[in-house]
TrEMBL record:
PANTHER family: INSULIN-DEGRADING ENZYME-RELATED (PTHR43690:SF18), NARDILYSIN (PTHR43690). It comes from the Eukaryota. Belongs to the peptidase M16 family. Keywords: Hydrolase, Metal-binding, Metalloprotease, Protease, Zinc. Pfam families: Peptidase_M16_C, Peptidase_M16_M. The lineage of its organism: Eukaryota, Metazoa, Chordata, Craniata, Vertebrata. This is NRDC protein. Residues 2-153 form the Peptidase M16 C-terminal domain. InterPro entries: Metalloenz_LuxS/M16 (IPR011249), Peptidase_M16 (IPR050626), Peptidase_M16_C (IPR007863), Peptidase_M16_M (IPR032632). GO terms for biological process: proteolysis. GO terms for molecular function: metal ion binding; metallopeptidase activity. Residues 167-207 form the Peptidase M16 middle/third domain. The gene is Nrdc_0.
Length: 208
């Protein structure tokens, strides 16, 4: 550690600090508010696969990293048990898999906007009925919107415990990747959350 610290000091101490504040892009609101965004696009794939992806552009959510509202919603959307979207679509033989969420990368979540996507892998029969599949997805989202968040926090507590277990028992990653990820976290989170801010759920705020 002493040697590593010496190297870091030698290499990085000469980099000048310009003293400027962190750039802000808060004035660039609603980048997807264009006619081109409110459309259905058909893309011919290279592989023989049918996939329906529905994407919403939302206000920036990175400030709510301790709550992770999009993670909470993706957990409900991606549920595969009885009463879920995927369970219903599988009974119709329309879908094989479903994923919903936000990758929390710079493109999908930043200070200007956040993206939430639901992607359904369709069967050949499901491709013929993709309008109905989209309708089912929107119905489910509408139901979640009407019911609101679980006031008993059962679902949130379950997600919180699972994420905590995954964090505590995760496999050791490559040191270079770990440091890179840590440096990114230092730009986004409070000091006490550098190690955990991108993984753990800290608070339950149904209004968010």
């Amino acid at each position: 550690l002493d040697t590593l610290e010496k190297w870091v000091t030698e290499i990085f101490s000469e980099i000048p600090n310009n003293g400027l504040p962190k750039p802000s892009f808060d004035h660039l609101t609603q980048p997807f508010d264009t006619p081109e965004f409110h459309k259905l696009y058909r893309v011919v794939p290279i592989r023989k696969v049918h996939s329906l992806t529905i994407t919403w552009a939302l206000p920036p959510q990175e400030q709510y990293y301790r709550v992770k509202p999009l993670h909470y919603i993706s957990w409900l959307v991606g549920h595969e048990g009885k009463g879920s979207v995927l369970s219903f679509l599988r009974k119709k033989f329309w879908a094989l898999a479903l994923y919903g969420g936000n990758g929390e990368t710079g493109f999908e979540q930043n200070s200007t906007y956040s993206i939430f996507s639901i992607s359904v892998t369709l069967t050949d029969e499901g491709y013929k009925h993709f309008y109905e599949v989209a309708h089912v997805v929107f119905q489910y989202v509408k139901m979640l919107q009407k019911r609101g968040p679980d006031q008993r926090q059962v679902c949130h507590s379950e997600i919180q415990k699972i994420e905590a277990n995954e964090f505590h028992y995760q496999e050791q990653t490559d040191p270079v990747d770990y440091v890179e990820n840590l440096c990114e976290n230092m730009q986004l989170f409070k000091k006490e959350d550098f190690l955990t801010g991108d993984q753990l759920l800290f608070e339950y705020k149904p209004e968010v």
